[in-house]
Amino acid sequence: MRIKPFAALRPPKNIVEEVECRAYDVLNSEEAREEAAGNPKSMYHINKPEINLEPGTSDTDPRVYAAAAEQFEKFLSEGWLLRENKEVYYLYAQTMGNKSQYGFVVCCHSSDYQEGRIMKHELTRKDKEDDRMRHILTLRAQIGPVFLAYKNSEPLQTYINRYATTTPEYDFIAPIDGFRHRLWVISDDADIEQITQTFSQMPEMYIADGHHRSAAAARVADEVKKTNPNHTGEEEYNYFMAVCFPHEQLTILDYNRVVKDLNGLTDEAFLTALQQNFSVERMGAENYAPQQLHEFSLYLGGAWYRLVAKQGTYDNADPIGVLDVDISSRLILDEILGIKDLRTDKRIDFVGGLRGLDELKRRVDSGEMRMALALYPVTMQQLMNIADAGKIMPPKATWFEPKLRSGLFVHTF
Fold first, then answer.
1. Would you give the DSSP letter of residue 27?
2. Percent of the chain beyond pLDDT 70?
3. What digits encode the pLDDT tens for the residues 6-43?
4. Axis-axis angle for helices 62-78, 126-139 (nearest 10)
5. CATH of domain 255-376
6. Which pLDDT band, with edges at 50, 70 and 90, does 70 fall under?
7. Beta pairing class for 278-284 and 180-186
8. What are the φ/ψ torsions at residue 237 (nearest 5 degrees)?
9. What is the DSSP letter of 238?
């Protein structure tokens, strides 16, 4: 992996909690407008810049990108973002409950993405890539980092252990999710050299979250390269900002499904149809979560059911076919309910596991949805197996938590 340190723009310690915010793609415009209300320092003004315009403004309106640039200039002139005095790495820790994950904030070279060493597991949409690309080119900056995983490294763990015992530059509890976020500056030249060297020996890293950001950054590098007759490949625009975590520290939560109707079936007929490929056991009214792979929890008609996929319905040798998201998509959503495309069908919605089984129950009991299906979470090993095989995950398969915050560091070129 080809990485380098960088001189980030970042907020002074005393205002970091006013500046930092959630990533642009985990909330809608109205939620961002509400969270930023009364706070001119909120990074939402830059990474959700439509909130600076009248409500209802499309997030791809040309004025939106101009508003982002105007706000970026304001943050610089007001001193809400200050330049690091040298090129450094950072160590970023996130704590959810009693579990912490520690990632190195670095700049990755776009060639590692373009040539497949930064490995993806999701398809991207061109319109979303175009939006991020335009945002990056307008600002000549990346506001939000890509979330990467590397296979555990003892040398890097040594640095994590050493820095984590010192006083962090930032240390705060984020609103809404209540997770703790800490940041250390790694400015020692010898440490920087050794970290760079250690990453250079890695054959690959994996995108956990941020497929559109990394695709857009690679396209930006190609675009800017065309305007530079003296291009060498070392220019800052060839690099994009990422936070790289050891894979065993990461948490993937369940990503569950709620469906509006049973495709014309009664509850009884639906349960009967399930028995062709699953054992079906009624568990009662109390919440029931899947306990292992190939086990599902169905909420229907005020009761929870335990479903277990029968032998022969999946292929352990197929990294896609063995996934519970694939099993449920093929044998329940498609075969019984007629839902062919999870990305476009309006009869289905998705609920991240952080919201819990109560949210699934609420949406069914309210009458909004007819049934809910809870899945056992995908593992990091499954994700890496799929990426290694050059395959693509089914849609809505992974929900990483905690999410990276925006506004703690910005990369410019």
1. S
2. 100
3. 999 999 999 999 999 999 998 999 999 999 999 999 99
4. 40
5. 3.30.1760
6. very high
7. unpaired
8. -70, -15
9. G
CA dihedral 147, 24, 125, 69 (to 10 degrees): -110
Q: Measured between alpha carbons, how far is residue 296 from residues 45, 222, 290, 323, 363 in Å?
A: 41, 44, 5, 12, 18
* Structure tokens belonging to residue 203: 């054959």
φ, ψ of residue 94 to 5 degrees: the values are -125, 135
Q: Which pLDDT tens digit goes with each residue over 252-298?
A: 999 999 999 999 999 999 999 999 999 999 999 999 999 999 999 99
Structure tokens at 216: 């857009």
Taking CA 410 as the corner, what is the angle to CA 177 and CA 192, rounded to the nearest 5 degrees?
Answer: 105
Question: Reduced to 3 states, what is the DSSP secondary structure of residue 299?
Answer: strand
- Work out the burial of residue 385: count CB atoms within 10 Å of its CB; fewer than 13 is exposed, 13-18 middle, 19 or more buried: middle
Q: Which residue has the tokens 């984590």?
A: 164
Distance CA 373, CA 361 (A): 10
- Residue pair 216/390 in contact (Cβ under 8 Å)? The answer is no
Alpha-carbon span 279 to 156, nearest angstrom: 45
Q: H/E element holding 96?
A: strand 89-96
Given a contact cutoff of 8 angstroms between Cβ atoms, the answer to whether 325 and 376 are in contact is no
**Where does the chain hold its CATH 3.30.1760 domain(s)?**
255-376
